[in-house]
Amino acid sequence: SAVISQKPSRDICQRGTSLTIQCQVDSQVTMMFWYRQQPGQSLTLIATANQGSEATYESGFVIDKFPISRPNLTFSTLTVSNMSPEDSSIYLCSVRSTESSGNTIYFGEGSWLTVV
Amino acid sequence: DAKTTQPPSMDCAEGRAANLPCNHSTISGNEYVYWYRQIHSQGPQYIIHGLKNNETNEMASLIITEDRKSSTLILPHATLRDTAVYYCIVRSLNTGNQFYFGTGTSLTVIP
Q: Based on CB atoms within 10 Å of each CB, which residue in A26, A73, B36, B68 is the most buried?
């Protein structure tokens, strides 16, 4: 499976500020996704990061709050804008590659974000 | 998307088999069953997937009932490192490649 690196791994941010999370993959992948995991909760899909075009957002998530970039097949960023304490979560990047058996997806270790 | 139902928590004695059930009564004929697990503070880890036949790999076995309305993930010899939240996911082809996670089963392996 692909090796997925996320930066930062952890951060503490002030409310009202924005933070950009980076996801780097060691090989070209066809699909990249961003998930959020709030404390004690399951994973929620935020959006599909599309290479060279606007991301596809799930219901309840909007581009103004979570702008996403994917300039190439190995890199994506997620920005959490105008943060509030409710945005304190783990943000996870996941990918699907052409080598993925059964179209499985693989995850990075996540970025732990605390908003104070 | 098909919904899955899992017990919120289970215990298993170390060295014994852990059998984690999942109900997916509305699964469609071309939808696969996937299992992932998430050990505390880590990203989810892929375990296994199947369509209708039983599957086995180095991590686990997946038993899918003949009517495909339920499945069981089996960890044959549970260790303390298997303590994690286990997610059963049915992947809907109608929504492309997205995976939607339910609440999962929190498995605790007891020494």
A: B36
